């Protein structure tokens, strides 16, 4: 999909509303704007939390060693299966690594229903095993002579104890299956696969941020950071073993390891994040209140909901869809807009991309999806402005995390780095990348041409290909331990 540059209404300045509307909007803009000084404060705290998490267990930034050691060469080869669970869909991918940074994929996608997301873990694992089985049959691999190796991208906080072992710390992003927290997701899945006679060995367990780093590195060896900016948010980066003070995993085959930061939980204590009343409302009514506060201010699952809360507040104050406007009852009491999570982040994308003078597309989106008819241009501008401030804050906060990593790793402008990013927000949300760069320019003043030295890039399919690469790395590490690879 082509990214559309929005012809944005400037983030400040009147939109042609009543004095009350203008005043209120100005207040909202102020609440959501992070000044450069404050952004610096957030970044500094992010860095000190990184160090705390590297030195001690049980910190807010969990900084989980991924057991993926060393770097890729781009020459890795072989057929691997990958499984990607963690967003809206479950994907099974057959990845053929061809070397020279090239690969081919074939995949199938199935929806994970809310019932599966919140039911017993055994049901979810059985469903996954069925999807893998169907995929193998379709691809003519069900009677393969050898057991295929599978990399499992399980995009939740897991405390790893080996490359294919770990314990689930907690659920995020609307998942809440019973019988999973404190257990090993690999064992639970392997159990279902065995019970259903699916000939697969789960060889690697990988977080999507780690997988994204790997998949980007396969093509761009100068990658040291991977990020997810989609339904949820997280980051992974390559750390020196000597800086992982809490490491008790014994000898490693390399002096570097990828860290799964689990940065969605950053500042759960709320020391520094500018949490607004609208964020609090989203948090309180979520499946995991008081957890993942940074993620709730950054990611696709929540931005629409934050925006909806601002709009509802304006409606309740009769500053939006007031009694003097057409279809008052229908709009102000819209059952659609009253629905939890009804205003999707994808609507924000479309609205932000709407550059027409009377915001025709915005009106269409609101009509089609939320049954809001006869929205006038001022109302549309208000809605667009709210989307802009919520979206801009998200991108600036994501930028603070990237800058924190770059500064922590002391990546100089001469050295530079590639940053692989996967996720719908980064891929589709207009201006998200430009806004991240705005924050980077503030926080990395040494990087005079920051676009050239901190090279953000879409790592499409990052988590799928990354899981296959992790399975490959697992095999290599195994051979290195046995002394068969130098
Ligand atoms: C999870 C992370 C994951 C991120 C992006 C968060 O909710 O805790 O493990 O990487 O979402 O999918």
TrEMBL record:
UniProt KW keywords: ATP-binding, Glycolysis, Kinase, Nucleotide-binding, Transferase
Bilayer-crossing regions: none
Ranges where the Hexokinase C-terminal domain occurs: 225-473
One GO cellular component, as annotated: mitochondrion
Enzyme Commission code: 2.7.1.-
Gene Ontology BP term (one): glucose metabolic process
Gene3D superfamilies: 3.30.420.40, 3.40.367.20
Residue span(s) of domain Hexokinase N-terminal: 25-218
Catalytically driven reaction(s): a D-hexose + ATP = a D-hexose 6-phosphate + ADP + H(+); D-fructose + ATP = D-fructose 6-phosphate + ADP + H(+); D-glucose + ATP = D-glucose 6-phosphate + ADP + H(+)
The keyword Transferase belongs to this UniProt entry's keyword annotation: yes
GO molecular function: ATP binding; D-glucose binding; fructokinase activity; glucokinase activity
Recorded metabolic or biological pathway in which this protein acts: Carbohydrate metabolism; hexose metabolism; Carbohydrate degradation; glycolysis; D-glyceraldehyde 3-phosphate and glycerone phosphate from D-glucose: step 1/4
EC top class, as a word: transferase
Similarity comment text for this entry: Belongs to the hexokinase family.
Name the UniProt record assigns to this protein: Phosphotransferase
Source organism of the structure: Phascolomyces articulosus
């Amino acid at each position: 999909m082509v990214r559309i540059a929005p012809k944005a209404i400037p983030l400040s300045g009147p939109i042609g509303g009543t004095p009350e509307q203008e005043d209120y909007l100005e207040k909202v803009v102020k609440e959501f704007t992070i000044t450069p000084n404050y952004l610096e404060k957030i970044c500094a705290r992010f860095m000190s939390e990184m160090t705390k998490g590297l030195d001690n267990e049980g910190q807010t930034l969990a900084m989980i060693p991924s057991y993926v050691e060393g770097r890729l060469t781009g020459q890795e080869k072989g057929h691997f299966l990958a499984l990607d669970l963690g967003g809206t869909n479950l994907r099974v991918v057959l990845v053929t690594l061809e070397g020279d940074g090239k690969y081919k994929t074939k995949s199938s996608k199935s929806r994970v229903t809310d019932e599966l997301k919140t039911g017993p873990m055994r049901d979810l694992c059985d469903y996954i095993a069925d999807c893998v089985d169907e995929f193998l049959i379709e691809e003519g691999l069900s009677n393969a002579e050898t057991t295929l190796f599978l990399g499992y991208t399980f995009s939740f906080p897991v405390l790893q104890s080996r490359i294919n072992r770990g314990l689930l710390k907690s659920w995020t992003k609307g998942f809440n299956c019973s019988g999973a927290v404190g257990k090993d997701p690999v064992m639970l899945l392997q159990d279902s696969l065995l019970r259903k006679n699916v000939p697969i060995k789960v060889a690697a367990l990988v977080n999507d941020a780690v997988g994204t780093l790997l998949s980007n590195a396969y093509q761009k060896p100068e990658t040291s950071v991977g990020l997810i900016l989609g339904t949820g948010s997280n980051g992974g980066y390559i750390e020196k073993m000597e800086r992982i003070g809490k490491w008790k995993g014994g000898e490693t085959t390399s002096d570097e390891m990828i860290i799964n930061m689990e940065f969605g939980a950053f500042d759960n204590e709320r020391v520094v994040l500018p949490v607004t009343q609208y964020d609090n409302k989203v948090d309180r009514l979520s499946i995991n209140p008081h957890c993942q506060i940074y993620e709730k201010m950054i990611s696709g699952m929540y931005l629409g909901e934050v925006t909806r809360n601002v709009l509802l507040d304006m409606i309740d104050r009769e500053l939006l869809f007031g009694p003097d406007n057409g279809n008052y009852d229908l709009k102000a009491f819209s059952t659609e807009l009253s629905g939890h999570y009804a205003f999707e982040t994808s609507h924000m994308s479309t609205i932000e991309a709407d550059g027409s003078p009377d915001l025709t597309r915005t009106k269409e989106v609101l009509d089609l999806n939320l049954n809001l008819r006869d929205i006038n241009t001022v109302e549309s501008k208000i809605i667009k402005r709210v989307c802009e401030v919520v979206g801009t804050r998200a991108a600036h906060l994501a930028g603070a995390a990237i800058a924190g990593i770059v500064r922590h790793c002391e990546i100089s402008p001469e050295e530079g780095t590639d940053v692989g990013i996967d996720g719908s927000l980064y891929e589709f949300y207009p201006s998200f990348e430009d806004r991240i760069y705005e924050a980077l320019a503030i926080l990395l003043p040494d990087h005079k041409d920051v676009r050239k030295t901190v090279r953000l890039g879409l790592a499409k399919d990052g988590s799928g290909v990354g899981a296959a690469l992790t399975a490959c790395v697992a095999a290599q590490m195994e051979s290195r331990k046995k002394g068969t690879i130098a």
